[in-house]
Design goal:
This protein is an alpha+beta fold. Helix content is about 35%, strand content about 25%. The protein has three domains: about 5-175, 3-Layer(aba) Sandwich (Alpha-D-Glucose-1,6-Bisphosphate, Chain A, domain 3), CATH 3.40.120.10; about 185-395, Alpha-D-Glucose-1,6-Bisphosphate, Chain A, domain 3, CATH 3.40.120; about 400-494, 2-Layer Sandwich (TATA-Binding Protein). Helix 4 crosses helix 6 (about 175-185) and helix 6 packs parallel to helix 7. The N and C termini lie far apart (about 55 Å). The model has no long low-confidence stretch (mean pLDDT about 95).
Length: about 500
């Protein structure tokens, strides 16, 4: 390395570059995620782990990426940083986030996933994983504090490498391990007689889905491949994705339609009619199939979880996988077994080894899409009903969500704080809903009314947006209630 170097604190790098810390890693505009920024972020992450005695030079570090145009460049920058710090980069290729995490956790090595998840391809990110799983909020704080150095001779004035960088040859071990995880856990031929459509678009999960479903005996059909990246969001499904699914289901018979977001950690699971299930409902059904005892999920998830009375204990957390993981860790520390979690986006986490019908499944404490698709379909088969009817096993609770964009965070916080301690103020803000019976301040303000309807208000954690979640006994009512609330909240702008 050059003797001349630049020194910077990661927190300052965030402020100067505009590439901040999102859930479990860095995220920003692809143009802002220059080679230099990505190199320094990687150095900060590895340096933090090394100082904590978690890793040491000579160790392998796994990395993978999604199909965004900027991903290969960012992977190369990360690989360069890994090598320069004395570690061995293992290029796992274009595979799902849970696949590289599964491999790294089993190998007890650090890992990185280059992905912007479900956001548009003009943005990207890097998810960081310790040898035991995702970085949490305390780790984020530790990474922010790192002072890192970079040789001045590496980059030009635009933050691009002066000398071209390349990735090591691809290693398929992580992908093979992930596929084997499910082929070994589920009974051989358990999907025989099923016909499954995999909506490929631009998700790195499409290939492994095809191999796993086919390996378990299903007839797998692939549709909708896209050479350009599509930002499929499992919490805000695009109108065109709704239309595609219903069109495919109307044209041919399928027992299940399945897809995922760009990096394969959030599922889209559809019934035989082409209707996509909400992620928090699919999460409940998956937990049921896995014989979970303790289920951890954010406060925004559907309350059919509690009303089902299927589980020994339910734990509610703030929104975000780090909080779900912390909730699961706390449950384990208290002696709980068969502990799982999920988010409203459908991403499913397994904190402890799971045993179903005598078959073990290792823990995977990060969001995963595959287990949800398999769990929902096999629960339906266990009950002898099509996927469209498996939701009827649950009490009738439906959720809807929307957001007000360009809504100042300070204003959201001020307005919500004004309601938080005063049920009458909530009743005046939403006069058609009647008396407030319960207030939950876990994350924002979640109010339950006497008619058992729910309104949950929360400022976005990473954007000037005010989010509104509603819950009612029918999908139509949940949606109309959400529209009514959004209209009232818009008046807060003044």
């Amino acid at each position: 390395m050059s003797e001349k170097s630049e020194t910077i604190v990661i927190a300052d790098l965030m402020a100067r570059s505009g590439v901040g810390f999102g859930t479990s890693g860095a995220r920003g505009l692809a143009d802002a995620m220059t080679d230099r920024v990505c190199y320094l972020y990687t150095v900060g992450f590895l340096q933090y782990l090394e100082k904590g005695g978690v890793i040491r030079p000579g160790d392998a570090v796994a990395l993978a990426g999604d199909f965004r145009p900027s991903t290969p460049r960012i992977m190369a920058a990360a690989a360069s940083a890994i090598s320069d710090l004395g570690y061995e980069p293992v290029n796992c290729g274009n595979i799902p986030t849970p696949a590289v995490a599964c491999y790294a956790i089993a190998e007890r090595i650090a890992s990185l996933m280059v992905t912007g998840s479900h956001i548009p391809d003009d943005r990207n990110g890097i998810k960081f994983y310790k040898p035991d799983g995702e970085v949490l909020k305390a780790d984020e704080a530790g990474i922010r504090e790192q002072t890192v150095s970079v040789p001045l001779a590496l980059f030009d004035e635009k933050g691009c490498f002066i000398e071209p960088q390349s990735l090591p040859a691809e290693d398929g071990s992580a992908c093979r391990r992930y596929i084997a995880r499910y082929l070994d856990f589920f009974p051989a031929g358990c999907l025989a007689g099923s016909r499954i459509l995999v909506y490929e678009h631009s998700s790195v999960a499409a290939r492994v889905m095809t191999e796993i479903f086919g390996g378990l005996g299903a007839d797998v059909v692939r549709r909708g491949y896209s050479e350009t990246f599509l930002p499929v969001d499992t919490e805000a499904v695009r109108a065109q994705d709704i239309a595609l699914a219903r069109g495919w289901a109307a044209a041919e018979h399928f027992d299940l339609l399945v897809s995922a977001d760009g990096d394969g950690d959030r599922p889209l699971v559809g019934d035989e009619h082409g209707n996509w299930l909400r992620g928090d409902v699919a999460g409940i059904l998956t937990a049921r199939y896995l014989d979970a005892e303790v289920v951890v999920t954010p406060v925004s998830s559907n309350s059919a979880l509690e009303k089902s009375e299927w589980f020994t204990r339910v734990v509610r957390t703030r929104i975000g996988s780090p909080f779900v993981i912390e909730g699961m860790q706390q449950a384990v520390s208290e002696g709980a077994r068969q502990v799982v979690g999920y988010e409203a986006n459908g991403g499913f986490l397994i904190m402890t080894p799971i045993v179903v019908d005598g078959r073990p499944l290792a823990a995977l404490p990060t969001r995963d899409a595959l287990i949800v698709a398999l769990g929902v379909l096999l629960l339906a088969r266990r009950q002898g009903v099509p996927v469209s009817q498996v939701g009827a096993l649950l009490p009738p609770r439906f959720t809807a969500s929307d957001r007000l964009k360009d809504f100042p965070t300070e204003l959201s916080a001020q307005r919500i704080a004004g309601l938080a301690q005063d049920p009458q103020a909530i009743e005046q803000a939403f006069p058609t809903l009647g008396a407030v019976t319960h207030i939950d301040l876990t994350d924002g303000l979640r109010a339950t009314f006497a008619n058992d309807e729910v309104v949950h208000l929360r400022p976005s954690g990473n954007a000037p947006e005010l989010r509104c979640y509603t819950e009612a006994d029918s999908a139509e009512r949940a949606q109309s209630l959400n529209a009514e609330c959004i209209g009232r909240l818009a008046a807060w702008r003044g």
